[in-house]
């Protein structure tokens, strides 16, 4: 259900570079490891956007869990 918008993802790197931003050491502007964020206003000029990844899924009887967590949780756990 999720998609990680990290500065190591090639599609996100391409999007950042197309908007005149830079990615250094897997970080936008050399500082932020993610490419989409609600805060970090100083990196908007580098291509950081707040548009989330959205996927629609109709719940089925077999669906048991939905875990909603920030990117920090997923840095320590896998999807």
Describe this protein's structure.
The protein has 79 residues and is mainly alpha-helical. It has one domain (10-76). It is built from 2 helices and 2 strands; from the N terminus they run H-E-E-H. It has helices at 10-18, 71-76, and strands at residues 23-24, 27-28. The longest helix has 9 residues, at 10-18. It is elongated.
Low-confidence stretches: none
DSSP strand (E) fraction?
Answer: 5-15%
- Helix- and strand-based class? mainly alpha
Number of strands: 2
Number of helices: 2
Defining key terms:
2 helices, mainly alpha, 79 residues
Secondary-structure map with pairings?
Layout: H1 10-18, E1 23-24, E2 27-28, H2 71-76
Antiparallel strand pairs: 1-2
The gist of it:
This protein is mainly alpha-helical and about 80 residues long. It has one domain.
